[in-house]
Amino acid sequence: MGVVLEGVGLTHAGGLPALQGIDLRIEAGERVAVIGSSGAGKTTLLRLLATGLMPSNGRLMLLGQTPAQLGSAALKKLRSRIGLIHQSPPLPPRQRVVTAVQAGRLGQWSLPRALMSLCYPLDIDGVEQVLTPMDLTDKLFSRCDQLSGGQLQRVGIARVLYQRAELVLADEPVAAMDPLLADHTVALLNRLAAERQVTLVASLHAVDLALKHFPRVIGLRAGRVHFDCPAGQVTDALLESLYANDELGPVQAQANHPVPQTFGPVAGVAPRCL
Ligand SMILES: Nc1ncnc2c1ncn2[C@@H]1O[C@H](COP(=O)(O)OP(=O)(O)OP(=O)(O)O)[C@@H](O)[C@H]1O
């Protein structure tokens, strides 16, 4: 069992509804990209799936469990099965890469082992194994504040691989990388997820990467599912209606989103594939 959302809504404290009436079913082992304009609710959805936020209404099931009904110990156990790759990984600047990656398993280790791992790297070989596909083995003992933004993002990915999470959530995981490295990293993330039969949900602003690498693409618009399609069925018209911006108008909207230039004028296109 992967992820089930039934009529899920979420309103941030003091804010407007960020998600409304979300119905989704993501099977174990599926790889899904979430796209949509700024403020559409992508990060909020991922934080919800990471149990960092709870639904304001509706029902959320993750890996066969209902987070809202769990006590703190059971919630901690569930969280240890879920890996979140952040846009800007919150890694302590002075921490060594080996320690930062090892921290992926803190939630699975006993307290003494977890504390010891923060002082002394207990599993250098294991960390090297996940840094190798990220091409970062030479950074094993570097401090996090000595890495570039793109390298830090790859450390964040390595950490989730090390965690051996069953559900991997990636929030703009390649935003700090150049286009070639971003393409390579998204391809790698998809390959590793497929090999390990991990469920992968990633938010991306790069529409081309979503369509190229993910079998399924969900378009979020104003906190609602605008479309939910196999990548091959995402048409220019669907993307145009997803990114249509009444305030900017069609020309500026194209300049502000990575939407191909072939899109025609904004029109009232009914979303499909739901
Ligand atoms: N902590 C918060 N408190 C109040 N409102 C919030 C909070 N976080 C997000 N929001 C609001 O929720 C809505 C969705 O935001 P969210 O960050 O999920 O969008 P997004 O699609 O990830 O955007 P972006 O692509 O710019 O990162 C926005 O209207 C935003 O202003």
Automatic annotation (TrEMBL):
Which SUPFAM superfamilies does the entry mention?
P-loop containing nucleoside triphosphate hydrolases (SSF52540)
Subcellular location(s) per record: Cell inner membrane
Gene3D superfamilies, sorted? P-loop containing nucleotide triphosphate hydrolases
Provide the topology term for how it sits in the membrane. Answer: Peripheral membrane protein
Give the PROSITE patterns listed for this entry. ABC_TRANSPORTER_1, ABC_TRANSPORTER_2
Q: What's one GO MF term for it?
A: ATP binding
One family name in Pfam for this protein: ABC_tran
For this UniProt record, the keywords arranged alphabetically read as follows: ATP-binding, Cell inner membrane, Cell membrane, Membrane, Nucleotide-binding, Translocase, Transport
Domain (ABC transporter): give its ranges. Answer: 3-247
What is the protein's given name? Phosphonates import ATP-binding protein PhnC 1
Q: State the organism named in the record.
A: Halopseudomonas salina
Q: Which gene produces this protein?
A: phnC1
